[in-house]
Structures are given as C-alpha cells and as structure tokens.
Amino acid sequence: EISTRDWSSDVCSSDLSLLRQTHSTMRMHMSERTLSQHGKNNAMGLRTPASPVVDDWLTNTLGYPCFSLRIASEGIVDYESIGREAGVRFLITSEISHDQGIASLSILPGETREMASRTLLKRPVQGEGDHDLLPTLESFRPSKSEVDEIADIASNAFAHSRFAEDPRIGDEAAKRVKRRWARNLATGARGEWFAAIRAGERMAGFIGVVRQEGVTDKEPKLLIDLVAVAKDLQGQGIGDQLLTWACDYADAQQLELWTSTQSTNRAALGMYANRGFEFHQQTRVFHTMPRDIV
C-alpha cells in the first residue's frame, strides 16, 4: 500500500536523514551471535536474511520510525537491534506468503500481530480500451476544495484497513495515513493517473493508479494504489465505474493492471473478478510495535 518513496511535500529532510542514519546504525550493530548464524545459513546454502527498509513516507505521517519487510522465504530477519536503535516507538510491517510459516517473525522486537490477509490480483490487457468511457486520458486534477473532499472520503472509507484495525496506531493516525495518501494522488504528487466522480455538488469517489517498473518480470505494470467511495454513496455503482475507467486506461497503455484487497472483502473480490482480474497470490500482513503500546 505505502511506497518507500517520499511522496509528501511536508517531509523534514533532516528527520529523514536521521532515520536513514538510524537504519545504517542498525545494520552496523548486529550482534556477533546473529552474524554468526547468518554465516552458518550461508554455508548451508540457505537464503540470506531480509534487510529492514525505512519507510520515509509512513515515518513522516505517523511521526515515529517505520520499517517494512517482505519475506520471500523462511529465514532469519536481521531486526535484532531495531528496538534499541529506533527509540521508544516504532512500527515494522512484515508481509509473507500465505503458505509460509511465521517462525522468522519470532525474533522481531516488541509484539507482533497479524493485521490482514491480502489477496493480490492482476488483469491482463484486454483490447485497446474504450476511450469513450474514459473521462480523459490525462489525469483529472481537482481544485483545492475538491482535494479536501477527496481526503475526507479517504479518511472515512477505510474502517477495516490494517492501520484502522490496529489499536496501537489509533484512529486519528489511521485516518491521517489515508488522508495524506489520497491528497498526494489527487494533487499529482504520487501516481500517474487519477479520476474522480461527482454526485451533484459533491465528490463521490476517486481512484488513483501508479506505475511500477518491472524488476523480475522486466515488464512495467499499473497498480490501483487507492480507490474509495463516500460511505453514504456506496452500493450505487460508483466504485464499479471508477474501476471501469482504470481498466480502460490500462488497456490504452497496453499494460497489466494489478490490485490488492482484503481476502475477506467478498464484494470487492467479486467486482474485480467481473472486470477480468485473476488471482495471483495471497499474503499475510503483520505489525510489530513495542510491547508497552496498548
């Protein structure tokens, strides 16, 4: 959901410099025991440990050090010194394949809780897109007041996000994450394409798409980064219309369109299936925070 790139215009560069320094310090101060175990793993031909990545955007939004980790296979995670180096409060987000064990999370400092089961879907290119359905091939750029409305929609539309479901993060902070995320998409600070729908005199919903350059598959892809409909207008086909536009935009670009949603969200899964999305992977998302956080 959150990119490690700095998308926020109000990021303090000195704060980010300090956090990057903290990340380097963590890597330098790994214990001899852990390094010794890494050597044993390498000698046995096992996968080397994953490295913590400082999430600049989320760190700035929540106000304390945030790190991310995607565990590709079972193994040791080199987070042994993170609690000592990061300070009193921190957040580690870990994501693993649904069929993997979670033994590698046991050495993380603090308390680890499973926050979500996520389903990743992809939609192959289907034709060249119906340009008549697109509001425009160029991104819609809302006015300042419309951006505020869009941010309000985002802050209230994700009651079951991993941030909102974690009481240690808190409701206010969870809403702030979605507000800033949506604002960056609407203003063009993040993503490559954005569309919104009005209902009378008010904004009803929005969708933002980002481009991800290929790494292992060498082909770029488009990703539905965030989509939301005002709570009192849900169930009226607005989300389906937004998704239709995004699919046509992807077809016009001749690129696959990817998305993810909670595995328990049957309505969303059904809507995506009706638009040609196929199952790709199911993952589990965990949050690790200090044990003294309620």
Task: Describe the model.
The protein has 294 residues and is an alpha+beta fold. Helices cover 32% and strands 25% of the residues. It is built from eight helices and nine strands. The protein has a nine-stranded mixed sheet with strand order 1-2-3-9-4-8-7-6-5, sandwiched between helices. A hairpin with a 2-residue loop joins strand 5 and strand 6. Helix 5 packs antiparallel against helix 6. The longest helix has 17 residues. The N terminus is likely disordered.
Strand order, largest beta sheet? 1-2-3-9-4-8-7-6-5
Q: Return Rg in Å.
A: 20 Å
Stretches where pLDDT falls below 50 for ≥5 residues? 1-49, 73-81
| H/E element sequence | HHEHEHEEHHEEEHEHE
β-sheet strand percentage: 15-25%
Return the structural class.
alpha+beta
> pLDDT average, as an integer?
78
Share of residues in helices = 25-40%
How many DSSP H or I helices? 8
Shape: globular
N/C terminus separation: 24 Å
The count of β-strands is: 9
Summary of the model, kept short:
This protein is an alpha+beta fold. The chain has helices at 13-28, 32-43, 56-62, 82-86, 144-156, 171-187, 238-253, 266-274; strands spanning 53-54, 66-71, 91-97, 111-123, 193-199, 202-212, 221-229, 257-262, 278-289.
Detail the topology: elements first, then pairings.
Layout: H1 13-28, H2 32-43, E1 53-54, H3 56-62, E2 66-71, H4 82-86, E3 91-97, E4 111-123, H5 144-156, H6 171-187, E5 193-199, E6 202-212, E7 221-229, H7 238-253, E8 257-262, H8 266-274, E9 278-289
Parallel strand pairs: 2-3, 7-8
Antiparallel strand pairs: 1-2, 3-9, 4-8, 4-9, 5-6, 6-7
Helix pairs in contact: 5-6
